[in-house]
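Aim 2 progress. For Cytochrome P450 90B1, the working sequence is reproduced below.
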Amino acid sequence: MMNCDANNPEVDQLRGEYINLNKGLVSLPFNFPGTKYRKALQSRSNVLKYINQKVKERQQQINDGCEGNADDLLSFLFNQIDLSEEEIADHLLGFIFAAHDTLSSVIPLAIYFLEGCQRAVDQLREEHLHIRKMMESRGETELNWTDYKQMEFTQCVINETLRLGNVVRYLPRKVTKTIQFKGYEIPSGYTVIPAIAAVHMDPSLFDDPQCFNPWRWQRESSSPARNNNFMSFGGGQRLCPGIEFAKVELSVFIHRLVLAYVWETEEPDPPMALPMVDFARGLPMKIRPYMSPIV
Ligand code: HEM
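Predicted structure tokens for this construct:
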């Protein structure tokens, strides 16, 4: 996003600040010394300081005519004429939060759910071995769009991981007009919080909702395009703009995972909402190479 070197110690420090920010994101808003909320506010300001510094450095490089060919989000944002430096920094923080945290939570959840469902792993391997054979017949080693469109069962696994994993559990909304809802009046100015996780775990909407069942998405009536009860990417005007990109990234990850590895978790470590979905022990795993017939 900003062309930072991941091995740079300041990036490590930034990571620490960012973790604090996340921990306090869903906490009681008491700004007292020692509270998670206060730490989160301090960390947010430190993260923004870092980002602002990067924005200023890049502005300086642009002014000096030595920007190089930084092919990153920061350069893209600089090319949007109407954005102030403050808006650019805010966009960067928003993107780190929206794009990184969500995906980095969904990936371990997929690994975790799949470990408990060998039949799904077998079916994924079959799908991806077929795709790998097609790539070999073309003499190519990189996945392309046609390959991606063949990953039908993979999409079912992704949907099911998102439904059961619930990385985004609720979405606050401000009521802009007083409405009546099921006999209650919700006044304008109130905040409502749709509990997405509750919808995803409702047995009247999803059969046996506690069960990881990617096959449920194969039924036409359950496809996300037809199913208003699938809300992992939000909905309406604020629908996640990264939805397709996220699915491509997850699909490529699953492709590599099932064709290259066999994995098992070392100890029970179920995901928990802490309040962000996470694994208390970091999901330690044993990994071996997968001896595929053609890879
Ligand atoms: C599996 C991964 C992801 C999940 C589950 C997810 C989920 C969501 C949800 C539920 C929202 C709606 C928030 C709201 O209504 O208030 C949202 C918004 C957003 N997402 Fe994602 N997202 C994912 C990946 C990404 C990626 C990869 C990007 C960028 C490349 C991204 C960029 C955004 C942005 C910029 C918004 C704000 C949109 C707005 O406020 O109008 N997301 N995401």
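The chain has two domains: 1-83, 118-289. This observation will guide construct design in the next reporting period.
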